[in-house]
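Human: I wish I could look at a protein chain and see how it folds. This is the protein in question:
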Amino acid sequence: GATYQRLMDKAFEGQIGRNIEVYVDDLVVKSYTEAEMMRDIEETFCILRKINMKLNPKKCSFGVAEGVFLGYVEVAIGGTVFDKGRTDLCSILKKNLDIFTWQPSDMTGVPRSIAEHRLNIQEGYSLARQKNRGQAPKRAKAIQVEVQKLVEAKIMREVYYNDWLSNPVM
């Protein structure tokens, strides 16, 4: 969660607060006019392509007049899209089909230079053993299924650290 949030903050630092809001895996492009919306979507797609990140088309909405972000109602995210705007938006989406992932194997991964896990340990501090944390059975099963898909697509692999650190799947 935190590593992914740092990735998103770093990748979109020039847009956050100006024309985009990011929280973990929620990404909202906000614009006042159709022309701005088209420009802002193009800018966002350019960054997504640069960091090799893909979008799930089932979770995308474009040209939304208002929506919910983190449980709060956001007004005028994109504004109403009229016929010309709809045509322009379709053109942008067709031109950027590579930004979307249609199956797990399409997600090639984020460059290591951006998302690599590093231990940040200062001199003078001792290491602490992490407690095992569980998930609710239903959630744990869903997580196992999704992780298995990513492992089979060779996007993730298990890495092993010393016994003082938990063994996350990366």
